[in-house]
Structure formats: C-alpha cells, structure tokens
Write a structure and sequence with these properties.
globular, 55% helix, four-stranded antiparallel sheet, eight-stranded mixed sheet, alpha/beta
Length: 746
C-alpha cells in the first residue's frame, strides 16, 4: 500500500518550511504591533509633558499617530526605511534638549491660550483681535511642525504591519496577534509609568525593542540606528534641568522640585520649595509658621503664624473630629487642618510622587502625623467607595494641567460635577460643611462652582476671597451648615487678620453659568460649544494630509473618492470603535476612578473583547452577520439609557467586572463584524488603513461632546454602525470556513 502523498518527503519538507514561515510572520506581527503601541503611548506622554499645549490636547497626538499608521498601511508595498521616522524623533529630542528651542516649544500653549477658551496658566493676553493673530499663527505653526514629526515614525511601522498582515495565510489569527502585541505595548509602558521611570528609560527600551529589526537591515538602515541612539542621548540632555534639584516622573506627570531662596513669600506665607508640573508652576511647599507642637512631647497644634486659606476649613467647624481633604498634594492643606484643630484627617491624592515629596520635605511633617491617613486614589473613586462620614470635606487645588490620552476631560473634571457634589453632601455628618479651594482664571468658573453648591445645598455658599498674583485670586467656598458657620465666624478672632476679603452670601455671583455634570464635565468651558482651538486643530490635520500627499505621493487608494464599499465599511467600523472606546473610558472613570491603572484596564478590556470576538468567528465561521449587527446597534443604544453611577457603591472587584462588562459588551459584536469582513477582504493593509483613518475621524468627532455631552456620542456610534451595515462587503455573505479563518498549509 502506497503512503499518502501528504507524507512524501518533499511535501513534508514544504509543510515544515511553510509552518516556520507562518510562525515567523506571526511573531513579527506581534512585535511590530507592540513597538507601535508602545511608541504611541510614549509620544502621547512625552510630547504632552514637554510641549504643554499637548498636555491639554493629548488626543491630538493620538490622531496624528493614527494618520501615520494609516498612510503606512496604504503604502505598504513601497520601500520600508526607518531612517526618516527615527530622524524625526531625533529632531524632536534635539529641540527639547537645547534651551532656545525648548523655550519656543514651551510657549506654544501661551500663544494659543490667547484664544481665551481653555484654562491655561501663564497665558499671553492680547489687547485686540489684531494683536492676537500673530500669537495664534505662531502657536499653530509650531503645533503643525510637531505634528509632522510625530507622524513620520509611524509610516514605516504601518508599512511593515501591512505587508505582514497581507502575507499571513490566516487573517484572523494575524489580526489577533496584532491585538495581543498592542496589549503587550500598553502594559509595558504602563509598567514603566507605574515605576516612575523617566523618558530616557522609555527610549532605551524603545532602542532595545527596535534593535532586532534594525540589525537585520543594518547594511541599508544603519543611519536609523544612529538617529535612535542620538535620540536617547538628546532625551537624557533634555531631562537635565538647570534649576531643579530633583525631577520625578510620576504615573501622571513630570514633577520638578525647585528650592526657593530665603523662603520666598507666597501671599504672606513662606514657601520653601516650588513644584513644577509639566514645566509649569503648580504648587509650593509652604512653611505654615507655628504648626509644630509646643514641646517635643506635646501632640497639639496651635495657630501661631498668619492665618491661611488652609486653616479655615477646620476653623469653621466647632468640633472637626473627622476631616476629608482631596487633592492633598504636598501637605499644605493637611498641615493647616491639623493646626486648626482637626482630630483626624483623611488625605486623598491621585499622584503618589507628589505625596512622597510632601512626606519628605514639608517642614510641618503633616503626613507623618498619627492623626493623618493617606490614600492614593482618584477623588471620585474614593467618594464612591468610602462609608465614613465627615465633619468637613475640603476640596483642595485640583487643577491637573493634563487630560487623559483618549478623552477631552482633565483628571480633575469629574470632581466638580453636580453628581460629585451630591455625593459629597451624602458624606457629611449632621452640621458638616464642604469647602472648595480654587483659583479661577475667569469669572464664569467661580460662578459655576457657586451655582452648583447653591443647587446642591439649597443656600448660597459663603465665599472667602484672597488676592493673588494670578487669575481672580484665591476663592474658598463654604457650603453645608452655613448658618452655624456664620455664627462661628463672629466668634473667631483669628479670622480678623485674614489677608483678604470675607463675604457672606456674596452678591458677586450671577448663578447663571451652566453647571458641569458627569455627562458634560467641562469645568473650564463657559458653555456647551466646540472651542475654536479644536476647530483650528482639525484644520491643521487637514493641512497635514495635504503635506503628506505632496511629500509622500500617496496612492489613489488612500483617497476616499476611490474607495469601494469594503473600504468605507472598515472606515465606519473604525470611527464607531474609537468613539465607543472614549465612551468606555469616560463612563468608567466616573465610577471606577480616573487613575492610570483604571484606564489601562479599560483599554485592556476592550482589546480582550476583540480577541473573544476573533475566537468566536474561528469557532463558528458561519455566524450570520445581520443578527450580529442588530444586537450590536441595540446594545449601543441601550447603553445610552444606562446610568453606571448606580453601581458606584459596589465592592471594587464586582463593580469593575460589571461596569467593564457593560461598557465593553458592544465590542464583542463589533469585533465579530470586523473579523468576518477582515477575513474575506483581498487587501488586509488597505482594510486596516481605512479602519485607522476612521478611528482618526472618530477621535476628532469626540469634540462633539463639548457641545452635546458625552452620552450623545453613543448616538453617533450607532449611526456609524448603521453606515457600516449598509456598506458591508458582498464577500461577507460567503460563509465557508476557508474564507472566515483562512486556509492554512496542508
């Protein structure tokens, strides 16, 4: 009996060679996906830190990365060279390493802040429209140049990924390893951030990740290795500050410690150190005189120096046994509360490194006190989780100076919403008070806080106003049992030397500014509208596309006018997916918190759902598309009516599972649709390219939340999925396993 031809030596050798080649391609897809996602997160964090305008507009970096990847995927058959992209990285690093160019980049936020629409510190103010135009043009020009440099490194990454995906015989397996590589890149960078590693460590690791790919092409791409090595050196130079005695990279931001000579005076209080965040003044470590116990053995705190805004919250309550302070920072609030008589203080701050600086350097050692409990977490997460009641809840300065990488909301936005104040009210004991300390740059910000406190507590807040060298001054709002507070003010002699103006039930507020809500959390925007700055940035993106067309000779296949139904299908899926992911992060942040870990877990959950969808299609390749589309659109619309805040009081683990499951459920059905379409498309590179361009548009359209609110984005998501349904490729109706999974070697 003759053996089957499959077992012949020649066929067996061919099978083994093909299997080895498939494994190599799979590993390469995983690796390039890891590098791409890692570099994307690196640039979002690094550029957002060193060029401060991008700290407020981190999604701009994300959009430009998508554009570079999309261009690369659509041009995957062209020459792949890393030299141009790594040269662009070296240029950015060099610009940040030299003081003259670094200062020019830093001024970008000042130039664009003249628009008066975003809450930028140290903004340049123009006396007229004509005077503002040069500042705006300068800011936009610098921003455009940076966008060009960010785009370049992702073009070769996209080209290599496109070739590998087209070459792989099992498209869904290939796409799955693309997703797995992205997950690895997310957690690799998240791990470095958690360990508070500086940018030089990020780039050294990037060098190690890219090195295996460059070594194989060293004869032709040796300059790329030189550029990457130069980038590492320049990043090391850029990290050396001439004025900072210490630089720390927390999971959220860059912190520079500046020693002040002769205890520089800050509104009547000696300041020993300045903390700069993302190259901008943020807070000071104050020497609140007389805070120490009278003797080494006496554990008592007495006010012996000038009265400060940090002392007042505890002074206004007759018996502040339990006090909660959120945004405790380096400890000024905690020290003031202790010396004003607080028996026990729970200090909450999101940034462990800022608290660490205060623990080491604050002259009153507030964090070492037995009366203080320190909690490192997001304020809203703590509000939802705590079961304690407090005599005083004090909201310290919380301006975070940064947004998350996926949304337009800053880290502190959800602390100042109507829902947040309602929860704070529930945390008060009978006779308790809440205080809000902030320095509003514009009147509507103070008016918004006053209105929300008034609507929450039913009485106009008491307001302390202290002059400052910036903004409108320092405002301290007091709400809760205001009748008792007013009576106490009459009996406290220490309030007399307060260097400012005390107004009770002030007539200075109109109480007409639209309130911030969990659905519209934009504290620093005067009313629902799309800021002009975001419109201008969208225009810059259009210019960037024109620049790419002129310099890269983009193929006609990248022009939407030449797209077929399949390309539009992937485009609409990408736009819907990105907006849905923004929804996931925004909604979950309210319930779970806005920490780096929560965001990483949410994105991981989204990509895990994609992997589950891929597994479903592999297992059941004949799954019908139309019912899946119906369930997908129905779940998206159902989420519009789900209030996740009702789950806020659950235990952390079941809450995370429930909230994560609800928000990411549509991703399973979206992933099934994508996998079915991706399996049958002829050009995997073009399909993924169109998908990324759709995600780019989705990222831009999230600005609609400024006008309509975050929840309304779900209606846009549903519309995109309906458009994807109407443009689905005809090949999707073919349900053979070979088309769905791809034919493997036999």
């Amino acid at each position: 009996m003759k053996p089957h031809k499959y077992f012949s030596p020649s066929n067996r050798d061919r099978y083994q060679r093909e299997s080895v080649e498939v494994r190599r391609t799979t590993v390469a897809i995983f690796w390039i996906s890891l590098v791409g996602l890692y570099l994307e997160l690196l640039l979002i964090r690094w550029i957002g830190t060193e060029i401060r305008i991008f700290a407020y507009l981190q999604q701009t970096v994300l959009v430009v990365c998508f554009l570079g990847l999309g261009i690369g995927l659509f041009t995957s058959r062209r020459k792949i060279s890393a030299q141009r992209g790594l040269f662009a990285l070296a240029v950015i690093a060099a610009a940040l390493a030299f003081p003259a160019t670094s200062e020019l980049l830093a001024r970008t936020s000042l130039f664009l802040g003249v628009l008066g629409e975003m809450n930028f510190w140290n903004t340049v103010y123009a006396e007229s429209v004509q005077g503002a135009i040069p500042h705006i043009l300068a800011g936009l020009s610098i921003t455009f140049l940076v966008m060009v440099l960010i785009m370049e490194p992702f073009i070769p990454i996209g080209r290599l990924l496109g070739r590998l995906l087209d070459a792989h015989p099992r498209p869904i397996i290939a796409y799955s390893f693309n997703v797995i590589g992205s997950l690895a890149g997310i957690w690799l960078f998240a791990g470095l951030s958690r360990l508070s590693q500086p940018p030089v460590a990020w780039f050294v690791l990037l060098l190690l990740l890219v090195l295996p790919m460059l070594v194989r092409r060293l004869s032709t791409d040796w300059l790329a290795l030189v550029f990457l090595g130069s980038t590492v050196s320049m990043v090391l130079m850029a990290g050396q500050s001439s004025s900072a005695i210490e630089t720390v990279w927390s999971p959220y931001q860059k912190l520079e410690l500046i020693a002040l000579e002769d205890s520089e005076d800050r509104q009547g209080i000696p300041a020993l150190y300045e903390i700069r965040v993302n190259n901008s003044g943020f807070q000071w470590i104050m020497d609140l005189e007389g805070n120490r116990p009278q003797t080494a053995s006496e554990d008592s705190w007495q006010i012996r120096g000038p009265l400060t805004e940090y002392d007042i919250p505890a002074l206004l309550h007759p018996d502040p046994q339990a006090v909660l302070v959120v945004g405790s920072g380096t400890g000024n609030d905690v020290a003031g509360l202790l010396r004003a008589g607080a028996e026990h203080v729970t200090a909450v701050d999101i940034d462990p490194e800022i608290v660490s600086l205060g623990r080491r350097l604050h002259p009153q050692d507030p964090y070492q006190s037995d009366h203080v409990e320190t909690v490192i977490t997001d304020a809203r997460s703590f509000f939802a989780r705590t079961e304690k009641k407090y005599d005083v809840v004090a909201l310290g300065f919380l301006d975070s100076h940064t947004t998350t990488s996926m949304t337009n909301a800053r880290l502190d936005h959800y602390v100042y919403t109507e829902e947040s104040f309602a929860r704070v009210k529930q945390l008060l004991r009978e006779g308790g008070i809440v205080t809000v300390l902030l320095s509003p740059l514009r009147p509507f910000i103070a008016d918004r806080i006053a209105r929300q406190l008034y609507e929450t507590f039913g009485e106009e807040p008491i307001t302390f106003v202290k002059e400052a060298t910036y903004g409108l001054g320092i405002f301290l709002f007091v709400a809760g049992d205001t009748e008792a507070v007013l009576e106490r003010i009459e009996t406290i002699d220490e309030l007399d030397p307060f260097p400012g103006q005390l107004t009770a039930n002030s007539d200075g507020f109109t109480y007409t500014t639209p309130p911030a809500t969990d659905d519209w959390p934009y504290l620093y925007l005067d009313q629902p509208r799309i800021p002009l700055l975001f419109v201008l940035l969208a225009g810059l993106l259009g210019l960037l596309v024109l620049y790419a067309e002129r310099t890269l000779d983009l193929p006609p296949t990248m022009n939407p006018r030449h797209w077929d139904r399949g390309a539009w299908h992937f485009f609409f899926l990408g736009a819907a997916f990105l907006l849905l992911e923004v929804q996931n992060i925004s909604k979950a942040s309210v319930v779970l918190g806005n920490t780096w870990l929560v965001n990483a877990v949410i994105i991981t959950g989204v990509l895990t759902m994609v992997l589950i969808a891929n597994a479903i299609v592999i297992k059941w390749p004949r799954i019908p598309v139309m019912p899946v589309f119906g369930i997908l659109i129905a779940t998206v619309l159902a989420l519009y009516f789900v209030d996740l805040a009702r789950f806020a009081f659950m235990d952390p683990v079941p809450k995370a599972v429930l909230v994560g499951g609800l928000t990411t459920l549509p991703m399973v059905f979206s992933g099934i649709v994508f996998a079915r379409a991706f399996a049958v498309t002829a050009h995997k590179d073009h399909a993924l390219g169109a998908n990324l361009l759709g995600a780019l548009v989705g990222a831009i359209l999230q600005s609609l939340s400024f006008l309509l609110g975050i929840k309304a984005l779900l209606l846009v998501v549903a519309a995109f999925y309906i458009a994807a349904l109407l443009t689905r490729p005809e090949q999707m109706e073919r349900t053979s396993r070979e088309l769905a999974v791809g034919a493997g070697p036999e």
